[in-house]
Amino acid sequence: MTAKKSGGCLCQGVRFEIDGALNPILACHCSQCAKTSGNFATMTSIAAANVTMLSDETLRWFQSSEIASRGFCSRCGSNLFWKQTSSPDIYITAGTIDKPVGVRIIEHIYVGSKSDYYDITDGLPQKDEW
Ligand SMILES: [Zn+2]
Ligand SMILES: [Zn+2]
Q: Given a cut of 70, is residue 41 above it in pLDDT?
């Protein structure tokens, strides 16, 4: 049995509960994650049905591409979710989950799009795309 985890945005306008095992974290270096996070984004994932919103009064969705939307807090600006329209899964930014998260980064994706101000030095696998 997995204990429930919780998480949310900086101002607590968005709070959620996760019931079930999170997938390992992807570090995404695409230009969209750079814009919305101010840096590369680290996201874990789980079936959206396993995530219960305890508060979503300030949650807004921005359709960031033809296939996906990004959920963020309209009050404090926290970058929270990435959801592909056709997928049952939801991606959750790892830093918004209350510690301990319990899963770790396993690989870097969209490394071909990353900016020039940092290097990836942790030795984990790097993919030019997903
Ligand atoms: Zn907030
Ligand atoms: Zn990305």
A: yes
